[in-house]
Amino acid sequence: MRPPWFLSGMALLALGWGGGSALASEAKGERPLQVVRGDKGAIRGIVKAAAQAVLYAQVQGRISQVPFKEGQRFEKGKVLVQLDCEKYKAELAAVKAEYEAKEKTAQNNRSLMTLNAVSTLDLEVSEAEERKAAAAIKVAEVNVKGCHITAPFSGRVVGVMINEYENVFPNDKLVSVLDDTSLEIELVVPSSALAWLRRKAPFTFVVDETQHGYPAMVKEIGANVDPASQTIKIVGVFNRLPADILAGMSGSAQFAAGQP
Question: Which of 76, 80, 78 lies closest to 164 in space, CA to CA?
Fold first, then answer.
């Protein structure tokens, strides 16, 4: 049996070696890459489109054409849903004709007013009717414009909720679209990471579906910390948009330990 002083000496010797190694590592300033972990493991994230929207019907009508199907790509301004617009075009023509009549009446009364041949009341009423007819034209133009549901941005069709020849009403869902030309990575990290986390901080995002890591950086840091979970949301972007990444894919973020 070894004496107690021998065991104490060995323990101190081992502690000295460990401390020396740690000091040497700190002196070199090494920062090994590791997965920064929260309470329940590695930081998980999901790829999201920077812009995504569900387009609704603005007017009542029959669907005459749906040029793009699910998964297809489109350019900004392209018609995604076309409604039969004959009724609204006819209404626009009618209100334009009525405006012409009201305009001529108002002009005639203004001419007569210079000759004191018409009352002020008659002139004011005719001018009000003229303005009312002009407003009716704007309403009819909005209805005609509502027959064409155009793409607010370039991207892809996520889903189509209607079929050709169906009748739709205002606020009915038509198509869901997203902009896949600018994907973001949404992460939830421990609030303690704010000690070193900064905008433009680099990290690697390992995607589950592809089993590959992609270089990325922090774009924005959330405005508030969740007091219950002590976490904060951050948004990252890929340094270069990968061709094999789709919105909805998930993965894990890897940051450099102790990164400033």
Answer: 80
